[in-house]
Write the C-alpha cells for this entry.
Amino acid sequence: MSSVQSIAVLGATGSIGTNCLDVIRQHPGRLRAAGLTAFSSVEKLKQQVEQFQPNWAAIAVNQVCDTSGFSSPSKPARTQWFHDLEVVPELVRRPDIDIVLSAVVGAAGLPATWAAVDAGKRVAIANKETLVVAGSLVMSRAAETGARLLPVDSEHSAVFQCLQAGRKQDLRRVVLTASGGPFRGRTKAQLREVTPEMALNHPTWKMGRKITVDSATMMNKALEIIEARWLFGIPSSQIGVVIHPQSVVHSFVEYCDGSVISQMSPPDMRLAIQYALTWPERLATTCQEMNWNVSHVHEFHPPDFEAFPALRLGFEAADMGGTCGAVLNAANEVAVARFLNCELRFDQITQVAEEILRNHQYDANPSMDRLLNLDGWARKEAVRWNT
Ligand code: NDP
Ligand code: MG
C-alpha cells in the first residue's frame, strides 16, 4: 500500500474525526481526505472542507449550511456538498474511496459502516456501536466481501497488534485494560451523587461526550467486550478486563504457554488511527514517545463489578449474542442522553439498560431488520422509563 489512499472520514468533526484529519495532514503523500461528514457542526466542517478539499462533504438535512462561497466562476468547487446524511452509504461505496474511517457516535454509524463492509472496503472502525449492534452480521458480510476491519479503539488496536505475536489456536485469552474512569474506587452509594459535569471529566482521555459518560459508568468497557467478541471471533469466556489507571498498556493477549504480550504507548488516539489506516506498515508519528529515563509505575487491579454493574452486562450480552447488543446499546444511548439532560441519576443509566435488556424478546439469529426494530423499541422504552 504505497499509493495515496483516499479516506472517507465519517464523523470528521468529532474527537476521532479531528485526530484522523491530523494524521492525514502529517502524511500528504500517503493519505488524503476524500470525503467528510458531520451532523451539526457546520462551521467546523466548512473549515475542514476548505483545508482538505475533499471530493464530497455531507451534513444532516436540517442544518442550514451556506456552501455557495465555496465556488465561483473563477474558483470552481472541488467539493460536492450533500445536505443529507442518507446519501453517505452510497458515497462510501464509490470507487474513489479506499478506506472508510467509521467515527460517527452511536448506532447512527451503522448504515454507512455496513455499506463500506458490503462494498469490500478497508474500514478503520472506531464506531464500536456498529459491532455491538450487528457484529455477527457485519463480520460474516466482511468475510464474504473481503472487507477488512481494522480497529481504532485503543484496546482493540492493541489486541490486534498483540495477536500478530502468535497463532489463534494458541490464544488463552484477551485482556482489555480500562482506566477505570473518573470514579475508580467509589462505592455504589457514592455513584448516586455523580453529576454530568463530574462524569464528563475523564482523567486520561479527551473524547466525545457520550463515550466519556460510557467510560465513567464502565458501559464503554462492556461495549468493548462485545466489540472484541465479534472483531476477534472469540467467546466471552476468553475475554477479561483489568483496571489500569495510567492508560499506557492498551491491552494484553495471553498465550497458552503463559506468555503475556502487551502494547504500550502514551495515550494518544492518533497512533491507533494511523495504524488502522496504514497497516501493515508503520509510519513515524509526532505522538509523544515513551520516556524510559523517568520512573514509571503501572498498576493493575481487578474491576469492581458491584460498583460498575455495566461490566457484567457486557459479558452477558457478549455471551448471549443475538439481539442483546442492539438492545443494550440503544437503551444506553438514550439513558446517557437523559443523564446529560439531568433526567436520570448516574447509577440509573445502567439500571435502565439492564431492565430493558432483561425485558426484550431475545432472538439468537436476528436479521438486520429485526435488530433495527429492536433498537427502535429499546429507545422508546428508555425514553419512557420513569425514575
Ligand atoms: P464525538 O461526539 O466527538 O463525535 C461524533 C461525530 O459523529 C461528530 O462528527 C458528529 O458530528 C457526528 N455525529 C453525531 N451524531 C450523528 C448522527 N446522528 N449521524 C451522523 N453523524 C453524527 O465522538 P467521538 O469521536 O468521541 O467517538 C466517535 C466513535 O468513536 C464512538 O463510537 C466512540 O465510541 C468511538 N471511540 C472514540 C474514542 C475517542 O477517543 N474519542 C476512543 C475509542 C472509540 P457533529 O460534530 O456535527 O455533531
Ligand atoms: Mg477504548
